[in-house]
């Protein structure tokens, strides 16, 4: 299964720090982590002693691959390790994610500054990784001690527990912004040419005339202030030429009723019915 934003015609962005899941408990969470990684161009998934092993077949594999929502290439390429030392041997810098202060005197950063620093390290030829602990307990103190620095998330202190995939996603988001910029994937659609002041004033004149004819400006003493309010509302919209045409057309229809062409067609049909001959060929009597 793939999501609505998937576009296989575009090249897959890869690289970034290694995502190291330490003792993950649920295969479905590993799949969700893979999806989060693919969202933000992370491609190095490492698993350290997953509780149920790393399923290559069966129901656990099916659950993980379904949760990955198309990011199966990361699951198929995931590397399995039996120790934290082996999983991080090739790295130059290691972050540990935790929601709790551990009293270890380590430097603590939010994901944004941490990923900006990580980008500089990787651009310089270094390799970095981020440790994520098991779902129920997080990293233990020895695993945090194994890292160089700590990443913690600015969350509600009364409820700081994050889902494993959410933690990966937050780091991935900050990584992608640091490495590839924060511009949206697509731009605001181009609008039509801005309406000229002459066009807007002409619309005002027609609109206010119809409102006046239908008794909108009551009491009369408040008419100038009501007109100013209306004009200020419309000016704040920064209307385009197409916007004014659409609004003007809508007001015309409200003020004048059905289009004249429709009335004309009805009259023509009525006239044709009146002129229809009787069975003897003579026109029907009125």
Write out key terms for the chains shown.
alpha/beta, Alpha/beta knot, 7-stranded parallel β-sheet
What do these coordinates show?
The chain folds into two domains: 18-180, Alpha/beta knot, CATH 3.40.1280; 197-274, no CATH class. The mean pLDDT is 86. The protein is α/β, with parallel strands linked by helices. Helix content is 46%, strand content 9%. Strands 3-2-1-6-4-7-5 form a seven-stranded parallel sheet.
Topology readout:
Blueprint lengths: L17 E5 L4 H13 L5 E4 L9 H11 L3 H5 L2 E3 L2 H5 L4 E5 L10 E2 L1 H13 L4 E5 L8 H5 L3 E3 L12 H17 L16 H17 L9 H14 L4 H16 L3 H15 L12
Parallel strand pairs: 1-2, 1-6, 2-3, 4-6, 4-7, 5-7
Helix pairs in contact: 1-2, 1-7, 5-7, 8-10
Number of domains: 2
Annotated CATH topology of the largest domain? Alpha/beta knot
CATH architectural designation of the largest domain: 3-Layer(aba) Sandwich
Number of strands: 7
Q: Determine Rg (CA atoms, Å).
A: 33 Å
Can you list the strand order of the major beta sheet? 3-2-1-6-4-7-5
Main beta sheet strand tally, sense and closure: 7 strands, parallel
Structural class per helix/strand content? alpha/beta
Low-confidence stretches: none
Subunit arrangement of the protein: single chain
Strand proportion: 5-15%
- First-to-last CA distance: 71 Å
Shape: elongated
> Helix segment count?
11
């Amino acid at each position: 299964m793939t999501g609505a934003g998937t576009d296989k015609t575009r090249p897959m962005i890869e690289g970034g720090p290694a995502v190291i899941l330490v003792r993950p408990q649920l295969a479905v969470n590993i799949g969700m982590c893979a999806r989060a990684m693919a969202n933000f161009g992370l491609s190095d998934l490492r698993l350290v002693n997953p509780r149920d092993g790393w399923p290559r077949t069966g129901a656990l594999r099916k659950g993980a691959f379904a949760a990955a929502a198309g990011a199966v290439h990361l699951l198929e390429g995931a590397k399995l390790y039996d120790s934290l030392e082996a999983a991080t041997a090739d790295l130059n810098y290691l972050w540990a994610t935790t929601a709790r202060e551990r009293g270890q005197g380590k430097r603590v950063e939010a994901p944004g500054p941490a990923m900006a620093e990580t980008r500089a390290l990787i651009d310089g030829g270094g390799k970095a990784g981020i440790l994520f602990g098991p779902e129920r307990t997080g990293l233990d103190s020895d695993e945090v001690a194994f890292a160089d620095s700590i990443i913690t998330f600015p969350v509600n202190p009364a409820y700081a527990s994050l889902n494993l995939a959410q933690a990966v996603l937050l780091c991935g988001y900050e990584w992608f912004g640091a490495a590839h910029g924060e511009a949206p994937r697509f731009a605001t659609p181009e609008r039509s040419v801005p309406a000229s002041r002459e066009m807007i004033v002409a619309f005002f004149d027609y609109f206010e005339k119809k409102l006046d004819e239908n008794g909108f400006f009551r009491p009369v003493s408040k008419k100038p202030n009501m007109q100013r309010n209306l004009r200020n509302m419309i000016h704040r919209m920064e209307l385009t030429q197409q916007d004014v045409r659409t609004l003007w057309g809508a007001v015309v229809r409200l003020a004048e009723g059905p289009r004249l062409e429709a009335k004309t067609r009805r009259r023509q049909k009525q006239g044709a019915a009146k002129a229809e001959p009787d069975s003897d060929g003579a026109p029907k009597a009125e």
